[in-house]
C-alpha cells in the first residue's frame, strides 16, 4: 500500500502528524474491529495504512506504538516473578487454611459466616488476579485486603491474627506473581 492510499484509508492528509495518524487509526480501528461487527480485512487494511504512514513519516514502528505495546516483548522488564505451579498450589492452600482459621476462631458478632465469606472472597480475587492479571480482580482483592485488615483490627482475636498471618505471605506472593503475567 502506498502512502497516498494509506492516507485515504485513514482519512488524513499525507503530511499528517503522528498524533493525527494515531487518532485516525484508533477511530477507524474501533469501527472496523472484527470483534465489534467489523470486517477483518478492513481492519487489516486500517492497520497496514497506519504502519505505512508511520514509516513514511520517518518514525520507527516501535516508537509509533503506544508504550504499553512496546513493553510486551520478550525483553520487557517484569515487575513481579513467576512461581512454579506447586508453589501456587501451596499458597492457595495457605489462603484457604487462613480463612478457615479466621472464620472459626473469630470473635466477630457475625462469625463464622462473615469471616469465611470475606476471606473466601479475598482468596478468590487474589488467586484470580494471580492467574489472569485482570485489573478488576486486582482492585477487588485490594478492597478485600483492606476490609479484612479493618475487620481484624475491630474484632481482634487470636484466630483473626493467626488467619491473617497465614494469608499475608501467600497474598503478597500471589499478587507479585500476577503482576508478572502478560504485561
TrEMBL record:
Keywords: Chaperone, Membrane, Transmembrane, Transmembrane helix. Residues 5-58 form the J domain. SUPFAM superfamilies: Chaperone J-domain (SSF46565). CDD domains: DnaJ. The keyword Transmembrane helix applies. InterPro entries: DnaJ_domain, J_dom_sf. It comes from the Bacteria. SMART domains: DnaJ. The keyword Transferase does not apply. The chain crosses the membrane at residues 87-104, 116-132, 137-155, 161-178. This is J domain-containing protein. It comes from Lysobacter korlensis. The lineage of its organism: Bacteria, Pseudomonadati, Pseudomonadota, Gammaproteobacteria, Lysobacterales.
Amino acid at each position: 500500500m502506498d502512502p497516498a492510499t494509506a492516507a485515504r484509508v485513514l482519512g488524513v492528509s499525507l503530511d499528517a502528524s503522528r498524533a493525527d495518524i494515531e487518532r485516525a487509526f484508533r477511530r477507524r480501528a474501533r469501527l472496523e474491529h472484527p470483534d465489534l461487527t467489523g470486517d477483518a480485512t478492513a481492519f487489516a487494511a486500517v492497520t497496514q495504512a497506519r504502519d505505512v504512514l508511520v514509516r513514511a513519516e520517518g518514525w520507527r514502528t516501535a516508537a509509533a506504538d503506544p508504550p504499553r505495546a512496546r513493553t510486551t516483548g520478550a525483553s520487557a522488564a517484569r515487575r513481579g516473578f513467576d512461581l512454579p505451579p506447586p508453589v501456587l498450589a501451596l499458597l492457595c492452600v495457605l489462603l484457604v487454611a487462613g480463612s478457615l482459621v479466621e472464620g472459626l476462631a473469630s470473635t466477630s458478632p457475625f462469625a463464622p459466616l462473615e469471616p469465611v465469606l470475606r476471606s473466601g472472597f479475598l482468596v478468590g480475587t487474589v488467586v484470580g488476579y494471580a492467574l489472569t492479571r485482570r485489573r478488576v480482580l486486582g482492585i477487588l482483592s485490594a478492597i478485600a485486603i483492606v476490609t479484612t485488615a479493618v475487620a481484624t483490627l475491630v474484632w481482634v482475636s487470636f484466630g483473626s491474627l493467626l488467619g491473617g498471618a497465614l494469608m499475608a505471605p501467600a497474598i503478597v506472593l500471589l499478587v507479585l506473581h500476577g503482576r508478572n503475567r502478560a504485561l
